[in-house]
Design brief:
single chain, alpha+beta, 8-stranded antiparallel sheet, about 30% strand, elongated
């Protein structure tokens, strides 16, 4: 149910939409499981890199594999994101479920490897070739052996996410009541996973 805005929240310059949904009580292993469940159900996210003299640049990317809290993407070395990562290894992957409004933000460091990495053959599917094309020279053919085929691995350092606790109709009702009464909507839980939490998750995956 919507909760009233307090004077303390205003005086302390606290965002009530965050503080009233903040969850640091759920055990970390459950928070990690919910994180995995959310991203595994989405498959496609926005991969953001930092471009010199421009700033953050994002593009839609299919996740080839989630490896614990980290994410693997198959990509073309001729794309500009590789040039971005040569200058700055900082990367972010974001996901959102348009039905539930659940969202996930993963901040980390990107590692790039060429097509000599055996994981590429494990992750490759014939559908991947649709984004590479076949030059007909027996080399640039869009297969796992194509020298353009590379792997981007985003190693997570910080994760924040929001998980809905109401149905779609419940969400609309909550927002409507909050707007009408001057209270603050409370429709889910917001959580964070710090670097130590993510390292623990890697050891357990």
């Amino acid at each position: 149910m919507p909760e009233p805005l307090t004077k303390q929240e205003v005086d302390s310059k606290i965002d009530p939409s965050v503080s009233k949904q903040w969850d640091d009580e759920t055990p970390k292993h459950e928070q990690i499981e919910d994180f995995y469940k959310t991203v595994d159900g989405l498959k496609v996210g926005l991969l953001t890199t930092i471009r010199p003299n421009i700033g953050p640049v994002s593009r839609s990317m299919a996740v080839a594999k989630r490896d614990g809290p980290d994410f693997l993407f198959l990509a073309n070395t001729h794309s500009q994101k590789f040039q971005d990562l040569e200058h700055d290894k900082t990367a972010q992957v974001t996901f959102q479920n348009s039905s539930s409004q659940d969202w996930v933000s993963v901040s980390g460091t990107a590692v790039t490897v060429d097509n000599s990495d055996p994981r590429i053959k494990e992750l490759y599917s014939s559908a991947t070739s649709a984004w590479f094309g076949d030059l007909g020279d027996g080399v640039h053919n869009g297969t796992a052996d194509d020298p353009r085929m590379a792997l981007i691995e985003v190693k997570a350092k910080y994760v924040s996410y929001w998980k809905s606790s109401v149905t779609t109709s419940g969400f609309l009702k909550e927002v409507g009541v909050a707007a009408f009464t001057g209270k603050v909507a409370n429709t889910g839980v917001q959580r964070q996973l710090l670097e130590a939490d993510l390292e623990h998750a890697r050891k357990g995956s």
